[in-house]
Amino acid sequence: MSSESSKKRKPKVIRSDGAPAEGKRNRSDTEQEGKYYSEEAEVDLRDPGRDYELYKYTCQELQRLMAEIQDLKSRGGKDMAVEIEERRIQSCVHFMTLKKLNRLAHIRLKKGRDQTHEAKQKVDAYHLQLQNLLYEVMHLQKEITKCLEFKSKHEEIDLVSLEEFYKEAPPDISKAEVTMGDPHQQTLARLDWELEQRKRLAEKYRESLSNKEKILKEIEVKKEYLSSLQPRLNSIMQASLPVQEYLFMPFDQAHKQYETARHLPPPLYVLFVQATAYGQACDKTLSVSIEGSVDEAKALFKPPEDSQDDESDSDAEEEQTTKRRRPTLGVQLDDKRKEMLKRHPLSVMLDLKCKDDSVLHLTFCYLMNLNIMTVKAKVTTATELITPISASDLLSPDSVLSCLYPGDHGKKTPNPANQYQFDKVGILTLRDYVLDLGHPYLWVQKLGGLHFPKEQPQYTVIADHSLSASHMETTMKLLKTRVQSRLALHKQFASLEHGIVPVTSDCQYLFPAKVVSRLVKWVTIAYEDYMELHFTKDIVEAGLAEDTNLYYMALIERGTAKLQAAVVLNPGYSSIPPVFQLCLNWKGEKTNNNDDNIRAMESEVNVCYKELCGARPGHQLLTNQLQRLCVLLDVYLETESHDDSVEGPKEFPQEKMCLRLFRGPSRMKPFKYNHPQGFFSHR
Amino acid sequence: MERAVPHAVPLGQMEVFQALQRLHMTVFSQSVSPCGKFLAAGNNYGQIVIFSLSAALSSEAKEESKKPVVTFQAHDGPVYSMVSTDRQLVSAGDGEVKAWLWAEILKKGSKELWRRQPPYRTSLEVPEINALLLVPKENSLILAGGDCQLHTMDLETGAFTRALRGHTDYIHCLALRERSPEVLSGGEDGAVRLWDLRTAKEVQTIEVYKHEECSRPHNGRWIGCLATDSDWMVCGGGPALTLWHLRSSTPTTIFPMRAPQKHVTFYQDLILSAGQGPCVNQWQLSGELKAQVPSSSPGLLSLSLNQQPAAPECKVLTAAGNSCRVDVFTNLGYRAFSLSF
Q1: Which UniProt keywords are listed (chain B) (predicted)?
Q2: Nearest Cβ partner of A603 from B24, B77, B125?
């Protein structure tokens, strides 16, 4: 409707028809005397609640009017048209009211939104301010902490303590009155003092440096002077050589030896030093010397450039010889083995002189790649020895030093690392090369200061002087005892092979004057043969028969009775006694298995050996044991009880004086000889 | 073929000497403790060792359980004989008899309770004591040995009450006949003599070697072992092992054993004997050999049956002789294990 559209316009609208509803609407002017109509201002003046009531009322009216129009229209009739028209106009007015209300509502809404927006903006602005301030606060706080934490370099300097400061510093620096009260000033003063001190010390330092320079120069001068002295002294020594020889003081010789000793490898050097020291201090019969070529020893340590030149030369040569046949694999392996077992060109010789003028010559070599030492031994006597057949092993270089210490057989290398080296070149054991290289006994390694501990294998074993020193005396004594006992045995064997048991006069008291049983045979037997004998099983089971021992068979006879004695001789004779096992052939075969008395006879020589040792070194033990066996056989045969059923006299009449023939549950014969009464009794 | 050597430890002087001593050791006597759990053994070096039977027989026995618990030097000479009273161990060797308290023995370093020497006639050589016998009714101990006499010693006072003479050569063994009470003794002179303890006189003599069925002249006439079971007696040694009826002094059964026997005992309905030869023989009373059980020593000198009621689990037969081992037989059929010095 056109009236409706004109109402939509904000500017002032002149109402054409005033409806009854007009009364409710106020068209008031705003404060501004403008010609325009401000609905915003109107909004402020109206009460939203009343507007809402108005709205409701208007809607109701409209509904009523529409209902009435409907009514009238349905009734029909001409006069109705005016009323319908009236009502139509009224409803138009109502429509306008509604539109106004709608506008007002929109305006209210917009206002509300604007206000909210403004308020929000304000809040944002404050918020921003707050953030800014907080940020600034934080910044300031950081700055403060930084300032507080600031460590000035002066605090790192260790200043002298306060008391010292006040004591030492001169008053113009310490300024006690001022600084006592004010810590800042105090610190400043202390720093001043520090600076003073440092300056003084720097001065001193410069002075000392210059002093040192001076003194060094003086030292240089004096050194030159001394070195010019050396050739003059040498010439004096040369001149004195004839005098030395005249006076039997071979200082020069010893000096030369020490010179050579400098080229010895460390273990040999340790041995040399310790042996010489021991010889000079304790044992005049020991003499030490070095053999071998010093030049070769020096050549072992050629400087690298030379060897590189050699290599390039040999490479050139090799290229030329490629056409020729290369050495076979076996020869190559052989060469490698030789290389591995190579000895150091120098070796140490020890000569031990014994009382009877026999000498034990020991040659010690060092195997460089294996880091072990070996020894070769030789015994020379004052007079030429005729070796009896059974004594061939006694003094042979291979076995004379075997088992010097129990179990030290010298057939295996003591260095566990060598096994890996051997595997590479196909060497099974060092035993095959022992004849050529010497024996690597454990005591030899100890004398050279080499120690190969089993529990913690060390990577490199170095020679240790204290180890050598601690073993030197014992080993030398053992070596001497060994040589002497072997020589004694040597002599005894010569006599035994002729059937005579050599009993020395100071041991005669152990035996009766008349001994009828005779030794008829004395031979060596092999280790395997000993193991095969039927009456030696006990000894083998007890572990007393090993391949390092020497084995012999003795035969003692009297009449028809033959006594075989199998002897185990331990290399450690005579501290370790020989062990006898007996087998008697007389009226049947009797051994310790079936005859208690044979067992007792064995016990007499094996267990009661200490009384048979004789004078101090105990070398008479073996011969005394053999003589005792002869006596025991006598007693056994003579005291055998006579069998009444057999006719004829006893083969062996009793000649020995015995108190009782049998004793104890085993019915032992009286084997113990009592001196000087000369009768036999039981133990 | 090489025989393997049992160990590779290098032998120094001390080890060689000890090995030789063990090889030549002879165990002469054994005795079971009153509680039945321990066994004492005496050897020819005069040592007495105590083994713990209960430890060695238990299921957790290790090698160390078969070694002695205690070792001490008891006599200067061999310990030829030992018996146990209900509290003491009595041992005899070269001329002396000593007693030890069982309760104290197990603590090391115990000293002897008492020692006595019977009055000997000769002083040139101290005679050995080969056999000890306890007479519980009189609380006395009988000793016999090298001086050919039986000495009776009262255990309470220690005094020597009687000396029974009659043997012409030294005495090997003794046996007690409970009922009478009578003592039987067998000696080197080949005779078994019966002595009445109340009258201290010899009542019967059996000269075994004079009987042709059992005498073996090539072995000698000595009687090495005796055992008696009221009317019956079994003896052996040089002559063959024979069962005698005492009242009539006749040999009833001869056991066909060639080797001389050194120890014989009655056990249930069997006779156990041991001697030269490495086995324990079990005989029926009829003379049949029921079993021959090998032992580890080449000859046996002593058998001991542990029948102490307090320790039924240690009921074993132990045998010892010419070695350093004591064999233990839990079942008479085989050797279970050996204790060793």
Answers
A1: Apoptosis, Developmental protein, mRNA processing, mRNA splicing, mRNA transport, Nucleus, Phosphoprotein, Repeat, RNA-binding, Transport, WD repeat
A2: B24
